[in-house]
Amino acid sequence: MVWLYPSRAGHAMSCPMPEANTPKIVTAAILVIGNEILSGRTRDANMHFLAGKLTELGIRLREARVVPDDEARIVAAVNELRAAYDYVFTSGGIGPTHDDITADCIAKAFGVGIDVQPEARRRLEAHYEAGMLNAARLRMARIPDGAGLIDNPVSAAPGFCIGNVFVMAGVPAIFQAMVGSVAPQLVGGDKLLSRTIVAQVPEGVIAEKLQALQNDYPEIEMGSYPAFRGGKASTSVVLRGTDVERLAPAAARMHEIFRELGGNPVENEIV
């Protein structure tokens, strides 16, 4: 399948997408790029947002990785992740300054050239007042050869997609807008359903029975999360799966386990 992304000028730019016979499980990774994230100066919000949006689309975010503004590290990470997952989303490093090297790194990872792309330049020219599109800002129009543009309704400077890699800005408002631009074109798998059951029973007490439940339902993802509520130990057990016919009896059995251990379980709705 080839996604044709219409530019504002009416031209279409192609970005290859997964085949139409999509597997039930579709996976993704996010690569967060920037020294400011690793130093603690900037708190990353994009991974959390992306995970929620992909879950809605039936795409499972399987890995989140953070790398510094280092060409070799970025190139290696991009090549490793794009070979392992259906989709890869990058965040950061496509601005106007010298340390914004993501576009060049993506071009190197794919073994293609990079230059100012005419449509990307046109978008910036339309956004800035006459004489304000300086050499630094024009860097944001440098796009790897063969890449399609990702619309940026916030500040005009586009992201881009090449292969199964989507390259986006690090500023959360812009990142979110770009995700909104590409989301309708992403091909998801079966939606992941989730049920959360909570009871005032310590995590260590349920461990053995929870392991037995997992053995009985190997296709259901199970996780336990301890907390203190009202001064008492409690545990939330989260069950995730794509088949409601299997998820329902597993959840019912978890209710029974909590009651057997003296708890009074309550549950969130399936989401």
List the topology elements.
Blueprint: E1 2-6, E2 12-16, E3 26-33, H1 35-38, H2 46-57, E4 59-67, H3 71-84, E5 87-91, H4 102-110, E6 114-116, H5 118-127, H6 135-138, E7 142-144, E8 148-150, E9 159-162, E10 165-168, H7 172-182, E11 193-199, H8 203-216, E12 221-229, E13 232-241, H9 244-260, E14 266-267
Parallel strand pairs: 3-4, 3-5, 5-10
Antiparallel strand pairs: 1-2, 6-7, 8-9, 9-10, 11-13, 11-14, 12-13
Overall number of structural domains? 2
Runs in which pLDDT lies below 50 for 5 or more consecutive residues are 1-13
Q: CATH superfamily of the largest domain, called what? A: MoaB/Mog-like domain
Principal-axis shape: elongated
Short description:
The protein is α+β, with helices and mostly antiparallel strands. The chain has nine helices and 14 strands. It has two domains: 2-185, Molybdenum Cofactor Biosythetic Enzyme, Chain A (3-Layer(aba) Sandwich); 193-267, 2-Layer Sandwich (Alpha-Beta Plaits), CATH 3.30.70.260.
Task: Provide an overview of this structure.
The chain is α+β, with helices and mostly antiparallel strands and 271 residues long. It has two domains: 2-185, Molybdenum Cofactor Biosythetic Enzyme, Chain A, CATH 3.40.980.10; 193-267, 2-Layer Sandwich (Alpha-Beta Plaits), CATH 3.30.70. Helix content is 35%, strand content 28%. The chain contains nine helices and 14 strands. It has helices spanning 35-38, 46-57, 71-84, 102-110, 118-127, 135-138, 172-182, 203-216, 244-260; strands spanning 2-6, 12-16, 26-33, 59-67, 87-91, 114-116, 142-144, 148-150, 159-162, 165-168, 193-199, 221-229, 232-241, 266-267. The strands form four sheets. A six-stranded mixed beta sheet has the order 4-3-5-10-9-8, with helices on both faces. A four-stranded antiparallel beta sheet has the order 12-13-11-14, covered by helices on one side. Helix 8 (203-216) packs antiparallel against helix 9 (244-260). The protein is elongated, with a radius of gyration of 22 Å. 34% of the residues are buried.
